[in-house]
């Protein structure tokens, strides 16, 4: 059984993969940058000799690529135990600075890609005979409260949240559980090019956030539907 992680080559996605591998769990990481994927895969393979680490270069907003990836899973006999939706991008700026390409980029990564990829994977996971499967999606606290200069990002996360809550209701009678995670800011490259001016040194360590996500996701004795993770006050 494998754990599938979008955006697994860096940041929080990589840390989630790392924590799973420390538990000798098999992982498949996805990303668009081939070099980053290869580097991440090599580092992850050094952590455990028992865990299988696979990687695929994939754009989760392209339907043909997703179909080809699922065909690969079916052909190679790689059952998915958990899907972690972590991939995403952001935009920080005034309303007057927003252009169509900014909207397309943020919605494509955070909402459209998540909805398309998850929908396809649900079909695959429902056809597998195994039980106790989970979809864990990292949405950010931006899906809970609007914030100035993050309008597109907020909109994308709110849309993704609506999709996932509806998906949870649709999957109620199945063996797939849907968990949504709302973390605050983390010290990753996510905000590096956003011109936000945030002091990321005071943000959370992604390794700490990943550890808490994996702890809940792997505990099959409980089912937590929503998790908010923030810095201690």
UniProtKB/TrEMBL annotation:
Keywords: Oxidoreductase. The keyword Oxidoreductase applies. Pfam families: adh_short. The keyword Metal-binding does not apply. Belongs to the short-chain dehydrogenases/reductases (SDR) family. This is SDR family NAD(P)-dependent oxidoreductase. It comes from Fusibacter bizertensis.
């Amino acid at each position: 059984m494998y754990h599938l992680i979008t955006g697994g080559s860096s940041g929080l996605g990589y840390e989630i993969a790392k924590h799973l591998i420390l538990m000798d769990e098999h992982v498949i990481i996805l990303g668009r940058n081939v070099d980053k994927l290869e580097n991440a895969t090599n580092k992850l393979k050094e952590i455990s000799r028992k865990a299988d680490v696979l990687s695929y270069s994939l754009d989760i907003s392209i339907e043909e690529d997703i179909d080809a990836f699922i065909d690969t899973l079916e052909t190679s006999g790689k059952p998915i135990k958990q899907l972690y939706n972590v991939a995403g991008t952001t935009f920080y700026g005034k309303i007057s600075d927003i252009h169509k390409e900014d909207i397309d980029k943020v919605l494509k990564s955070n909402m459209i890609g998540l909805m398309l990829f998850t929908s396809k994977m649900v079909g695959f996971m429902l056809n597998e005979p195994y039980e106790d499967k989970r979809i864990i999606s990292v949405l950010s606290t931006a899906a809970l409260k609007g914030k100035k200069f993050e309008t597109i990002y907020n909109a994308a996360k709110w849309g993704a949240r609506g999709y996932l809550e509806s998906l949870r209701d649709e999957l109620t009678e199945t063996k797939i559980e849907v968990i949504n995670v709302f973390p605050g800011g983390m010290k990753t490259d996510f905000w590096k090019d956003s011109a936000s001016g945030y002091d990321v040194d005071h943000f959370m360590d992604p390794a700490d956030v990943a550890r808490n996500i994996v702890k809940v996701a792997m505990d099959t004795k409980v089912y937590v539907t929503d998790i908010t993770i923030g810095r201690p006050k």
